[in-house]
Amino acid sequence: MSDFRNGFSTPAAAPADMAVDAGLRSFMLGVYNKLALGLVVAGALAYATGSVPAVQQLLFAVTADGRVGLTMLGMIVQFLPIVLLFGSMFFMKNPTASGVNMLYWAVVASIGAGMGLLVLRYTGESLASTFFVTAAAFGALSLVGYTTKKDLTAMGSFLIMGVIGLVIASIVNIFMQSGTMYLIISGLGVLIFSGLIAYDTQRLKMTYYQLGGDRAAMGVATGFGALSLFINFVNLFQFLLAFMGGNRN
User: Fold this and answer.
1) How do residues 39-77 score in pLDDT, each as one tens digit?
2) What is the per-residue pLDDT for 68?
3) Measured between alpha carbons, how far is 43 from 131 in angstroms, rounded to an integer?
4) pLDDT by residue (tens digit) across 157-185?
5) Which of 7, 99, 120, 183 has the fewest CB atoms within 10 Å of its CB?
């Protein structure tokens, strides 16, 4: 103890630091594993709803000229993730790991089912290439967020406001149907969600240290962390499709 107070390292310090690093790696690995499994489930559901006729017809209506619309059930599925996320703000005041886990898989399933629309609109080759570009970008951006010494909190607040602006602009463009505005929104979406990947990764790292080893709290943080990164990944993927996706028609 005297060595520590006088500023000298002791032999026990190195193992302690290594334990902290190992704990952080384990925590982040748990987040990434849940994210990866969520992407697999979402991809499988997107393929099923977009390719299996019996399931496809429940959610989507394809006209003779190839245009894709939504059935009533399809509209419910498209808006369900938003309902779940906003609902969780009111009904999960004291979240538990199991509750957050249920929310995560419900959001993953509903987003995955709704993404069958992309399978109908874009070629398989362009979907695959865009996914791999998204995965590579995600890995690089998450690494930046994990390793950077710069505090990204201010940037995160700015990016969250940018998301609100994107939502408003997207709603306006539903009525305007402007191709130019769609590309501008998509370009901004790529930039905003790229930044959010780095920001959320750093936020998760800081959360780990703030929790101080509380396993119950870390279980909750793992679920919410995977959910944030999953939403960022899916949005980045969809915005990149505006530039890389090849239409089937």
Assistant:
1) 999 999 999 999 999 999 999 988 777 788 899 999 999
2) 85
3) 10
4) 999 999 999 999 998 998 888 989 999 99
5) 7
Q: What is the mean pLDDT of residues 121-142?
A: 96
d(CA 123, CA 186): 19
- The structure tokens listed for 156 are 């995160």
Alpha helices in the chain (DSSP H): 2-5, 13-51, 53-59, 72-91, 97-114, 116-121, 124-147, 153-176, 179-211, 215-244
Residue type, 111: I
What is the 3-state secondary structure of 36-102?
HHHHHHHHHHHHHHHHCHHHHHHHEEECCCCCEEECHHHHHHHHHHHHHHHHHHHHCCCCCHHHHHH
Structure tokens at 196: 């959010």
